[in-house]
Queue: 2 jobs
Job 1
Amino acid sequence: MSDQDERVEELESKVERLEATIQGLTEELVEVHDRLETLETSAETSATSADATNAETPNSGDSHARTDENDESKSEESQNEDETGGESGLGDDIIVA
């Protein structure tokens, strides 16, 4: 094989690795976007629920405490997802040189 053929083969290999990396990152981005939409929807629902509770009992500090608990559980859930890395299974075998 000539040097030029080897160079072409090397470049084709790099292109394949880069395409795999792009594919993996794109899939992870879509997954993160979906998770973000879910969290935003959940937050909006919680806010609407808290507003309704506050409207029913304007002098109650109890509903505010429940909202704080919801915020804490969301933070813990987000932290757990960060620690596990989302376990998408993507990118485990992708090596970027």
Job 2
Amino acid sequence: MPLTQYIYILTGIIAVIMTVFIIRAFINGKWKLRPSRLSLVAFMVLLLHWGFVLVEVYDLFSVPVGNFLFDFIWLSTAIFCLLAAWKESKNNQAVAWFLGGISVISLLFGFILLGISGME
């Protein structure tokens, strides 16, 4: 089985685990507090990066510069979201699980894109 299929399976498992923990946080009432600003900023930065990827902003640069920018921004936003999820886990567990889950899924798809771009 190719590596990408393992990553897709792992993405599905992470999505299911994330959903279960978010539902548990809602049932236990650990979601009533407003998310911190750091979590909101981290989520917006991640959405902005995904938007840049979808509208192919990184293709406007030369190939080495675009690849460097994509890799650096992708890694830094994923780490930023993981740190925000860790900080948010004390305040609002539902938001923390959501933010951590989408940042891990973003990391997995970034690894897929990194592998695909290396195939020449």
